[in-house]
Amino acid sequence: MNKITADRLNKIEPSPTLAITALAAQLKAEGKDIIGFGAGEPDFDTPEHIKDAAKKALDEGFTKYCDVSGLPDLKTAICDWYKNEYNLLFQKDQIIVSTGGKQALYNLFLSIINIGEEVIIPAPYWVSYKDMVMLAEGNPVIVQTTFTDGYKLTADALEKAITSKTKAIILNSPSNPTGAVYSQDEMQRLAAVLEKHENILIITDDIYDRLLYDDQKFFNIPMVSEKLRERSIIVNGFSKTYSMTGWRLGYALSERTEIIKAMAKLQGQSTSNATTFAQKGAIDALTSSQSCVEEMKRAFVERRDFIVDSLSKCPGINVVKPGGAFYVFPDFEELSKSDGFLKLKKENAEETSHSKLLTKLLLEKYLVAIVPGIAFGYDNGFRMSYASSLDNIKKGMERIHECFNNLYK
Ligand SMILES: Cc1ncc(COP(=O)(O)O)c(C=O)c1O
Fold this sequence. Notes:
By secondary structure, the chain is of the alpha/beta class. The chain is 44% helix and 12% strand.
């Protein structure tokens, strides 16, 4: 029988972060004492007042379809938020609410990319950007950043990556997987390059904008360059800030109403509106006290400080202190040159990826789940999420120390 699935799926890979989380869960279910550092979601429950607002909405009959692009009241709450927090002004017709930031990004790529157009993606990148661009028949142009640049794109590297086919660039600060945060200065340097290239759109994935530590201020391209506002599309959502991953709510904002309209057209022919009563919960999230976010941030900072300190004591590991999100991305290039690692490579000659090899060793022998850096376009690194209790992190780090010390012997 002929192959039944469509060829376009051959271009993309299953989400590796979801895969490692599922594998760790399966091993746990088999009775293995796995410590998971794979989670891409906060380990806190959604705050009660947000859940109450959604329950009330259910009782009040918000159980039907609504406008494809979202409830007007939620759009108002989003506009107010952007005006008050970031001094960015949007009208309701410049917003679309989608089923997660993920769907907003997917709609966006399908709405703006023509065959062969290029999207600049700094690596390490969030796993889905590259595959989404390929599904839209565009070409991802990966620009490697490294541990020594703090995993941040420089103006020089950006300039070199731009061609006549560049349609867009995507920036993500704080970053998944590195936690890197661009300062106002760094954003301004990138903006200065982009201002010179008038046809390039700027996609700013701000999903971790509120999980920012050490009194840093958040900056994206539209905030640092008035000139670029009109070419920017902001993507954000409720998953990370309010621990609402399962609610599936995100949104996009752009002064270019034709982009928002195109996304709504696509959404209208695919999923229609995001869940109506969930949107009512999101209104409450934005308009009530933000103390729940502060509480979560305090826990993340404590865990980050512990994990970074512990990783910095591991042999062969270089670690940059993440400024935001809940991930840390150690570089293990030095460890990969140790006798122990070279021996491991010899024994597993069929595995060409260093980060997959390390992930497999940690999972099978030390019962620790991490995500291999190759999934994010950086094979000398791995991602650890600290969205897990401090006790778990301590236990997991003991095992990681044991593993790395054994490799480094
Ligand atoms: C960088 C980044 N962007 C977008 C998303 C999408 O999040 P959601 O679809 O839950 O809003 C995620 C989720 O992991 C992410 O890490």
